[in-house]
Each structure stands twice: as C-alpha cells, then as structure tokens.
Sequence to fold (489 residues):
Amino acid sequence: MDLSQKSVLVVGAGIMGAGIAQVAAQAMRGDGQRVFLHDARAGAASDAKTKLAATLDGLVAKGKLSADAASAALARIVPVSAVGEAAAVGLVVEAVVERLDVKRSLFGELEALVAEDCVLATNTSSISVTAIANGLKRPERLVGMHFFNPVPLMKLVEVVSGLHTDPAVAQAIFELSTVWGKVPVHAKSTPGFIVNRIARPYYAETLAILQEQAAAPEVLDACLKTVGFRMGPCELMDLIGHDTNFAVTNSVYEANFYDKRYVPSLVQRELVDGGMLGRKSGRGFYRYPQGVPALPPVSVEAVAASAAARAVAPAATDDRHAGVVVQGVHIVPTDGRTARAWVRELGTSAVVVHDRLMGKRESAAEGARAPALAYAAAPGLSAEQRAVAVAHLMSQGVEPHQVSDTPGLVVARTVAMLINEAADAVQQGVCTPDGADAAMKLGVNYPAGPFDWLRSWDAAQVVGLLDHLDAHYRGERYRVSPWLRAQVV
Ligand code: NAD
Fold:
C-alpha cells in the first residue's frame, strides 16, 4: 500500500492540522496531488492557508526553501468547506478537538464518503485508537499518526495501532511518514503511547522531591540540565502550562486504573488550583518574565577549601562502594540509599552521597559556572568535613549543590525511573527499545534514550537503586519492571 502518490485531506486546521498540511504539501511531488484542508469553523481553513503562505515565505527568505518549492507547496493546499469536496483522497488525517465523541462521529461521516481503500489516521495524543475505531464499518483502516508540536520541526511520528488496525495500514503510514521527512516509530495504543508515557517520571520525580521539600526548583532544573536535558522539569512544566501537564498526568493515571506508579502531584494541583499555570499566567514555579533565578552560590568556605584540597594528598578510592575517601570523608555516588543508610553501612558519619552525571557533562563555556551536581550530607557531618567533600567534587569539575537527604537524589532517581517506565512499555509490547530511544530523543529532545542510558549505566545498579527507593518509600511507585529485572545477569 503506497500512499505517497495520493492526495490527502486534513481535518482540523488548528495548530497541528496546519502543520501537518504544510509538511504533506512540501513532500508531495506528483502532478495533481492535493492537500485538502477542512475545519468546522467557517474561514479557519482559508486563514490557516494564509498563515502557511507567510510561513513558507519566511522559509524562502531564510534560504531554507526555493521560491518555486514554496509556491508549489502552497498551490497544493486547498481549503474546503465540506469534507465531501475531498472524497477522492487516499488518506485522511484528523486533527480536530481532543474528544472521543467528536472524533468518532467525524470518522463515521468520513467513512460514508471516502473510497474503500482510503486510510483514516488520527493525530490524537491521548485517546485510545481502538476506541476511536469502534463503531466504524472498517475499523481496520484506522490508525494513529501522532505528530509532535511544532509539526514542521519535530521529527517524530508515533504510528499507533489499535486492536483493529491492519498491520499493512500501520506500515503504509510508517512509510509515508518517512516520505514526509519524519522518523516514524511503531506504537501500540496504550495510555500516553510512547512519549507521553515514558516522560511522566521526568515531571513526577521532580514534583515528588519538591513535595518532600528536598530541593528548590532551580536546583532541580540545573542538575537535570547538567546531563543534557534542554530544559529542567520545572521550567518545562511552566512552559507547557501546569493545567495541560496535570491533565496529561491525570489521564495517564486514570487510564491505568489508578496505578500508584502514575499518581499526580499535590504540588502541581495546588499550582493549577491557584491559577499559577506557568509562563502563560506570569507565575508557576517561577515568576515571568524573569524566569529561572540564578543558583545560590557555593559557599565561600568551600571554594577556599577547594583550593586547599587540590594541594592535599589525592583521594583514596573506595572500590567497594565506587567512591573515594578524602581526609576521612567518604564520598560515594548514590545507589538509592540515603546518607543516613550509608552511615550505618560505613560506621562513620563522615559521609557525603552525590548524584550521577550519566556520562554526560555539559562543557561549561569560559567564565560560566560548572555543571550542577546534587549531594546529600549525613546528619553528623561537620562543616569542615562538608567543605572537604564539596572541595573534592569541585575539583572534579562540577558545582555541588546540597539537597536534603533524599534517596536517589535528582538525576539518578529520575533517569532510573525513565528507564523503568520504558522497560515496562517494552514488556507490554508498546514499542521496541530502539523505538523508545528514538521517540524520546526526537519527540521530546532527550539527550539520550532510556535504553542508551541503561547500556551506559548498568542494569544491576539501576535495579538496585530502584529497589532501595522502593524499600524507602514502600509503595507501588518504584516497583521494578520485570523486563528490567530480567536484564540483570
Ligand atoms: P486546535 O484547537 O489548535 O485545533 C483544532 C481545530 O479543530 C480547530 O480549528 C477546530 O475549529 C477544529 N474542529 C473541532 N471540531 C471539528 C470537527 N468536528 N470537524 C472539523 N474541525 C473541527 O488543536 P490542536 O492543538 O491542533 O490539536 C488537534 C489534535 O491534535 C488533538 O487531537 C490534539 O490532542 C492533537 N495533538 C495536539 C498537540 C499539541 O501540542 N497541540 C500535539 C499532538 C497532538
């Protein structure tokens, strides 16, 4: 089934529909191929075409598109006031409002108009593809074609198969996505599909740490940006809007029959209830337009001690705990236990536990601050011992920031949970490991995919960390995916 030569109807000329029409029109080469654009609101499709003309002109002005290609793409886009005017297309892509009843009735209407072999695709981001297809005469021709916003820039397309979807239809959309310049990934219709599901812990772990009052938002953001995330979770939630982010979390939670793994956060609900929705309302975790405040400075004593530390004897390694001992202070990477637990293990209160860098260290520009790294101190640690540990960490090229004695700290705990969620998705046949990696890198710009991290970390250590978190919190949230546990040899 080759859809690349067919005309397409895009229904819904909003943010997503307009972007999909642009991408389709720019990819088409065949004479007479058209992208029909329809919207229930009169004039909306024509308005979208006018905006697309300006967008294409902009690309020409920047030298990214030839004038001929721009005018050819624009000429292919045909606003229609009724879907019946576009009945001869080979593909319909639906991008209307996110409501099951509206989508179902639209596809019911379309089915009566289009040809037998016309493929029906939905851009839904959260509704079950199986449910949308239910009631159609030929539900096997309906498939999810989930683009990411902004459509012309984001490479990922999740090709979502419901229970009815014919594999040949999913494959045809997969291949067409490639022709349209996208990177498609197959997904099974399950709550959140791939990206919106695997990404939940990126927000949830930060919200959990905030609820414990273990660290400030700007510290959490800085630590996660250190390992290559473009935006920290707090600034990202402020950008997305807490209402939207909370709604997605809620829908994944409800759709999973209230599995505690996905429980939404009281911290976020309070922001939503208070109208502190993020950038769009001028205040979320941060105030706008100011945005993320600067991190607190590392203490003056520590900076002085850092210079002194470089002059003293080098640290002795503590291979058993993968850490070092400097002037009697044990400095260990987190394994999911608190510093308190390490005190019991090591028999000394001279303990500092630090976060993981996941192999990535953003190279700081000259004069810029070093990458942030979270650490926790054991309760009995003296100020001098803390300065020794901070100095040691600074000598490793990072800027240490103290957080409360929370297990798994910031990066280790977040990345372990992203890996765990991805492992469950693979176990449940939602996607392959490669599909999950591609989806997270291309759909939400992660610096690495969950399975890239798993390969560069170590399955036994990830499982160990999660088991420690599970033992600490005693709930369902940190239960280890059976697939992940099976990777431990
Ligand atoms: P939008 O509000 O910008 O556009 C929706 C358009 O659909 C509106 O112009 C509306 O007039 C039109 N519409 C509503 N009912 C219609 C009907 N029955 N027939 C024809 N037109 C109708 O919304 P959007 O952000 O473009 O989202 C559209 C779809 O894409 C939703 O299913 C959404 O979940 C999904 N999606 C959105 C994003 C995103 O970031 N915005 C990302 C991925 C997927």
